Amino acid sequence: MADTQAGAERRRVLIAEDEALIRLDLAEMLVEEGYDVVGEAGDGETAVRLAEELKPDLVILDIKMPIMDGLAAAERIAGGRIAPVVILTAFSQRDLVERARAAGAMAYLVKPFQKSDLVPAIEIALSRYSEIAALESEVAGLTDRLETRKSVERAKGELMTKYAMTEPQAFKWIQRTAMDHRMTMREVADRILKEAEGDTPSTE
Known about the structure:
Rossmann fold; Arc Repressor Mutant, subunit A; 9 helices
């Protein structure tokens, strides 16, 4: 992984965690995996300020932090479309995962985590963030945007089930098909869903 990261453009990551040892471990893991740690913060307020200044590719936020917690910071960073957010949560905070999602987090990691958990969470967050950015550039209105996202999510599910695609592969297929046929991604998604309904009438 480190090789591929080094070969490509290195992703710039900002870490916000109030426990210095965890922050140190996390920074070490990221560097070993080929990411650039461009900033570190011990509270949510500093994390938001650094995110605005540094414009990183990704922000990793712990939920429990002083001054401003990770959920409030995630809301500011994700809401401002600054960068995708990965939330760090302890096992006892699993109930906060939904709140983290609502705040705009793209993925989460449960502490204590291994290095093998870190890269998939980062890649999921980056992938989902780029999908949302692509969809939002296509659709202006908020209601249409939400409907488009719903259609595309369902169509991705169909492609993943039918053709054993991964989530990023399914999205790329929809995106490429839309470009090739000069259609919107919503139109491609709706067509996939219509065909799926036609294929399986007996399940209705």
